[in-house]
Specification:
With 544 residues, the chain is mainly α. The protein contains 20 helices and two strands. Helices cover 65% and strands 1% of the residues. It is globular. The chain starts with 5 loop residues before the first helix and ends in a 5-residue tail after the last helix.
Length: 544
């Protein structure tokens, strides 16, 4: 019987311990990376809430429910379309153009579901960019169609080009550069999606808004723009803050791992540069908007400053992991100029009505961001190494962003063109003027009957006002029919069942709030709530 020395036992135990440590280390590394992607993806998903608030505050109150349900459906449409075909097209194995595996996650390894989720929230973000540009006049069916196409096909194909190892933009070309001993692989560089996400979304937004045409009243007969204000600056501002918060995960999370050497530093640099670029862009936009120049409004604008900050964060996406902080500052400066320039071009030159300035923020910021990478990246950028490799790098990023624009514009032209041809793209003039919330959803965002606590005479006064205003409309209009009169005379509560009558009442109350009272009477002011009605009107409800 062979004997084993004590030294051999210790040696074998040491080898076993190392083996176990290696396996445990791999498991921990794998789990850490997946957890990192999930947490970052959840934060990025919260950007949908930011988009919803920003867009809701930037449209008129009569279209609030409509824009909110579209933002809600962005995630659900992307969830299904990206699961069935989007992820396979973008990240499946295939060729240089498109992926062809993992249909409906068939064959996808369990360890890749975190990657699926992270890429899903990116797809949803690209779709949401478009909703703001086509707000207040886009048919609901049209919205469903283009969202499916964007998240299921158009965006995933670009993802495959730029972020899949098989894609033609990701592969690049190996060049023999004079003065360098080793060949250099030069390719399209876009770390977190200035081009892949934002230029694509901005291009789609531009084409959609172009096919839809401007909102009624946005331009006069001579083509001069008129401001159509959104109904809530606080909502828009809160949405902007949420988007800024989400951009830290959007850019930092694009590292896609946290367990390898240098991952923590890369994530930290990306987030730091995001802060600097966004801050620089915000201040430049604030100052330029205060200046009385063609692209400035002469005021300290909250909303423009907010959009400028977002444009700066969009621009830094492409190079946030390989810029010096001062390069991020330069990126933000020019991102603000790009944003304001594209905003002016869209409105004054192209006559494109974009209620959210989505094209200027995402296309303007994203385009500059893609071009900034080969100029400002550490050590090898054109400002650091004036050589042939830097020139090739500029050419590749320019070719990549032009390919993204051409691909997106072509697909969107086909989709929006077909929808317009069949009359499915834009709502009728009547619906646009009266608002989409009641006609399309029967869910006004701010129903008049929901206001007031009912524990003082204010509720009775408001009720009397509503009744008087409604009757005034009916008495002055020969178009009012007998049935509608009966509904109104039976009480305002019943009138709420008739959306058209309720809408008239709501418009009249809005006039009252703005200082226009019916029959020439003065509106209620101060604490004297009975000043508007005389005593007989307060006491006698039978006439209604």
């Amino acid at each position: 019987m062979p004997t084993i020395s004590f030294e051999e036992v210790v040696s074998n135990l040491t080898k076993l311990e190392k083996l176990l440590d290696t396996k445990a280390g791999k498991v921990l590394e794998e789990n850490s990376n997946q957890f990192f992607l999930i947490i970052m993806g959840i934060i990025i998903y919260f950007m949908q809430c930011g988009f919803a608030f920003l867009e809701a505050g930037s449209v008129r109150s009569k279209n609030t429910t409509n824009i909110l349900i579209k933002n809600l459906l962005d995630t659900f449409i992307a969830g299904l379309a990206f699961w069935v075909v989007g992820f396979p097209f973008g990240h499946g194995k295939g060729n240089y153009f498109i992926g062809t595996t993992y249909w409906a996650s068939d064959g996808l390894p369990d360890t890749s579901y975190a990657l699926w989720f992270f890429n899903f929230v990116f797809a949803a973000t690209a779709a949401t960019i478009v909703s703001g540009a086509v707000a207040e006049r886009c048919e609901f069916v049209a919205y469903l169609v283009y969202s499916i196409v964007l998240t299921g096909f158009m965006y995933p194909v670009v993802v495959h080009w730029a972020w899949n190892t098989e894609g033609w933009l990701s592969k690049g070309i190996i060049y023999n550069i004079s003065g360098q001993q080793e060949p250099v692989n030069i390719k399209y560089e876009d770390f977190a999606g200035s081009g892949v996400v934002h230029v694509l979304g901005g291009t789609a937004a531009f084409v959609g808004a172009l096919f839809l045409g401007p909102r009624i009243g946005r331009f006069d007969e001579n083509g001069h723009p008129h401001t159509i204000r959104g109904h809530s600056v606080p909502l828009a501002a809160m949405g902007g803050f949420i988007l800024i918060f989400g951009f830290f995960a959007f850019n930092g999370g694009s590292q896609a791992s946290i367990s390898e050497a240098g991952d923590g530093a890369a994530v930290s640099l990306a987030i730091t540069n995001t802060v600097i670029s966004g801050s620089a862009a915000a201040f430049v936009t604030l100052l330029f908007n205060r200046m009385r120049v063609p692209i400035g409004g002469g005021r300290w604008s909250l909303l423009s400053t907010l959009n400028g900050a977002l444009a700066g964060m969009v621009a830094i996406c492409a190079g946030c992991n390989q810029f010096h902080p001062w390069s991020a500052f330069v990126t933000g400066l020019f991102a603000a100029i790009s944003y304001m320039l594209w905003s002016w071009l869209n409105l004054s030159v192209f006559k494109v009505d974009d209620p959210l300035d989505a094209v200027a923020v995402h296309f303007g910021g994203g385009l500059w961001g893609v071009l900034a990478v080969p100029l400002l990246k550490k050590d090898t950028g054109l400002l650091f190494a004036w050589d042939q490799a830097a020139g090739y790098s500029i050419a590749w990023n320019l070719a990549g962003v032009l390919a993204i624009v051409a691909w997106t514009a072509s697909i969107c032209t086909i989709v929006f063109g077909i929808l317009k041809y069949f009359g499915l793209l834009r709502v009728s003039e009547e619906v646009e003027l009266k608002g989409l919330d009641i006609k399309k959803h029967n869910e006004p965002a701010y129903p008049t009957e929901a206001y007031g606590h009912g524990w003082d005479n204010q509720a009775d006064i408001v009720k009397s006002l509503i009744k008087e205003i409604t009757l005034s409309h009916l008495e002055e209009s020969d178009k009012a029919n007998t049935l509608t009169r009966q509904v109104i005379r039976s009480g305002y509560q019943k009138s709420s069942e008739n959306p058209e009558v309720l809408h008239q009442s709501q418009e009249s109350i809005a006039d009252l709030v703005n200082g226009h009272s019916p029959n020439g009477k003065l509106p209620i002011t101060g604490n004297n709530n009975s000043a508007y009605l005389n005593s007989s009107e307060q006491e006698d409800d039978t006439r209604l």
